[in-house]
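hey
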């Protein structure tokens, strides 16, 4: 494509983004505030361990306990909120997050800090489920994937901007500053939601029985299995990103931080790009996701000693990695389109379960064979993902692709 033609194409796409309802971007900011709260704790763990006189592994429960709570309770909390007005539910979740982070500032023991950390995790899936359903319902059906991709862009922005920002303020001003930032973002998102997101309800009232009935669908369990494997295969290595770069590529300190930033920016742009095609080319995108990551991991395994090659591969890796969230959501939601909010809650639950298992497998791989072998472990999991994907049930209503 010639330069002037590319610029014209880019301008047209930006115009389409501007045509998105402003409420979609407000919901994306809410997602940004929640993901910053969830993962921002990573950069604070050493300070929290020292402040509360616990080991770093014990402090790690502030992250692991959060994810485990989501994995276990996600679908059932969404069902419990299914009869409430959606804007009220979203506002309540953000208020609970903000309040819990404020109360954490006054905790004198680690047990209380963990309690106020776990409390909002119960409500986390409610926000994601309703926000994604709301985003897709405010645009024409052919643009629903693009609207959802903007919500996921908020997730990516949380890892690109939110996590480093929290790490910086907590290192500079103490762990309390990190919690003040959490509460501030949650509060700002709450105010924006109250001002700019209209009240809305589900397109049709669904009984608990109707929603749970989708669990009888084989295609839903297939899509959940694919989602679980996508998350496990990607987080098997990504959870140990810094460790792998230090051991295999000799990158440490500021260089690792720079690579995390590059990875996050690439993921942010990759998610937005995938959102333009996911509604029409889901099948191709899933296949491309698996093939490109397999090739990238194979190359990074063989070329880890060549720094320029590693940087280029990290950009490709980051661009593809973050699209896994969007692809998984589209598969699950398309397999249970008659109960989209319950389907989204299953997506959140199984996604967190896959993340947890992938991190565990990565840790076992490091213990048995060293960090250098992490790309090979991810390739094996991606191969299993491909096998399950191509074994999809014949009845694939709602799962489109070309």
């Amino acid at each position: 494509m010639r330069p002037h033609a590319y610029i014209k194409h880019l301008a047209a796409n930006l115009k389409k983004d501007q045509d998105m309802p402003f409420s979609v971007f407000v919901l994306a900011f809410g997602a940004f505030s929640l993901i910053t709260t969830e993962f921002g704790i990573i950069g604070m763990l050493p300070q929290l361990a020292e402040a509360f006189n616990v080991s770093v592994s014990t402090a790690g429960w502030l992250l692991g306990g959060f994810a485990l709570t989501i994995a276990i309770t996600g679908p059932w909390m969404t069902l419990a909120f299914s009869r409430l007005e959606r804007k009220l539910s979203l506002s309540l979740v953000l208020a609970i997050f903000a309040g819990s982070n404020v109360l954490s500032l006054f905790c004198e023991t680690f047990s209380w800090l963990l309690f106020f950390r776990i409390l909002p995790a119960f409500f986390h899936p409610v926000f994601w489920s309703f926000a994604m359903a709301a985003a897709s319902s405010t645009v024409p059906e052919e643009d629903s994937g693009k609207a959802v991709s903007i919500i996921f862009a908020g997730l990516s922005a949380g890892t690109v901007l939110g996590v480093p920002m929290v790490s910086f303020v907590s290192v500079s001003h103490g762990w309390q500053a990190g919690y003040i930032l959490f509460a501030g973002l949650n509060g700002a998102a709450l105010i924006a939601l109250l001002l700019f997101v209209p009240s809305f309800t589900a397109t049709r009232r669904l009984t608990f029985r109707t929603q749970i009935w989708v669990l009888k669908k084989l295609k839903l369990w297939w899509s959940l299995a694919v989602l679980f494997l996508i998350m496990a295969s990607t987080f098997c290595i990504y959870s140990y990103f810094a460790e792998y770069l230090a051991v295999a590529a000799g990158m440490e300190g500021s260089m690792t931080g720079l690579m995390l930033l590059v990875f996050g920016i690439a993921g942010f742009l990759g998610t937005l790009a995938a959102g333009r095609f996911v509604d029409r080319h889901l099948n191709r995108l899933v296949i491309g996701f698996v093939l490109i990551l397999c090739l990238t991991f194979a190359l990074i395994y063989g070329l880890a000693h060549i720094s320029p090659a590693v940087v280029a591969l990290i950009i490709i890796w980051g661009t593809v990695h973050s699209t896994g969230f969007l692809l998984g959501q589209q598969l699950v939601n398309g397999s249970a389109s008659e109960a989209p909010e319950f389907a989204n809650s299953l997506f959140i639950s199984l996604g967190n379960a896959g993340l947890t298992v992938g991190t565990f497998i990565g840790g076992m791989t490091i213990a048995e064979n060293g960090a250098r072998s992490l790309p090979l472990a991810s390739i094996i999991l991606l191969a299993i993902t491909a096998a399950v994907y191509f074994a999809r049930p014949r009845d694939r209503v709602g799962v489109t692709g070309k």
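The chain has a mean pLDDT of 82. Residues 209-396 form a domain with the Growth Hormone; Chain: A; fold (CATH 1.20.1250.20).
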